[in-house]
Design goal:
The protein is of the alpha/beta class and 221 residues long. It is 36% helix and 24% strand. A hairpin with a 2-residue loop joins strand 10 and strand 11. The longest helix is centred in the last third of the chain and has 17 residues. Bound molecules: adenosine-5'-diphosphate. The site of adenosine-5'-diphosphate (ADP) has 11 residues, from strand 2 and helix 1.
Length: 221
């Protein structure tokens, strides 16, 4: 992404959240994104995902310009190339565990049976085998985040965007979830940008960047 600017206007004041952000993340690279609450981390992730338009600047994903695509193409690109992991898991409560994981595959056109088979195999990998027909609210927080990791990776996206993935888990559970997530993205050679306050994430990252006054500053890992 190049020269990203984004400001929010609440009617009286205009706050420039991103004031010229440049960022490249290569495949297989794990980049930690730090910065205090309100510094614009989520805004940056949303802009990369094409969920929120920047005021100016460009975002490219897999050689395609996210910022110049129309809404429908942007949605297709997002479904195909991006996986998301959120702080509050964000599983679909009315779908079973297996259906949640198969969803991104079905949205990108996989046949139902193929989606189910891939979901079962990934659920096994994340240590959730045997709970395929459970609903999210029957699982612990750590288990829900494992399911969310399986969902984020099911369609083998090029990029995983993670927003405080351990922020709602106790320390030990967070560690295990983080080991799993970083292990899988490394194995699949996926790029990952992970907004976090966690020093454990920083220790595992290839690069650490901090959002400060609207720009990214290289911080030692
Ligand atoms: P972080 O993820 O680092 O906590 P955010 O990206 O959520 O930061 O927010 C950055 C700033 O932008 C905050 O001051 C927030 O209030 C403001 N902001 C974010 N989204 C909106 C929005 N949709 N409308 C107005 N202000 C927003």
């Amino acid at each position: 992404m190049r020269a990203i600017h984004k400001a929010y206007d609440d009617g009286t004041t205009r706050q420039e959240v991103l004031a010229g952000v440049d960022l490249d993340v290569r495949s297989g690279e794990l980049v930690a994104l730090l910065g205090p609450s309100g510094s614009g981390k989520s805004t940056l992730l949303n802009i990369i995902a094409g969920l929120d338009p920047p005021d100016s600047g460009s975002v490219e994903l897999a050689g395609q310009s996210v910022t110049s695509l129309d809404e429908r193409s942007r949605t297709l690109l997002r479904r195909r190339d991006i996986g998301f992991v959120f702080q509050f898991f964000n599983l679909v409560p009315t779908l079973t565990v297996a259906e949640n994981v198969a969803l991104p595959l079905e949205l990108t056109g996989s046949a139902r049976a193929a989606g189910r088979a891939a979901a079962a195999s990934l659920l096994h990998r994340v240590g959730i085998a045997g709970r395929d027909d459970s609903f999210p609210d029957e699982l612990s927080g750590g288990e829900q985040q494992r399911v969310a990791i399986a969902r984020a990776l099911a369609h083998r996206p090029r990029l995983v965007l993670a927003d405080e993935p351990t922020g709602n888990l106790d320390h030990a559970t967070g560690q295990r979830v983080l080991d799993l997530l970083t292990g899988l993205v490394r194995e699949f050679d996926t790029a990952m940008l992970i907004a976090t306050h966690s020093t454990e994430v920083v220790a595992r990252a290839d690069r650490v960047l901090t959002l400060r006054d609207g720009v990214l500053v290289d911080t030692a890992a």
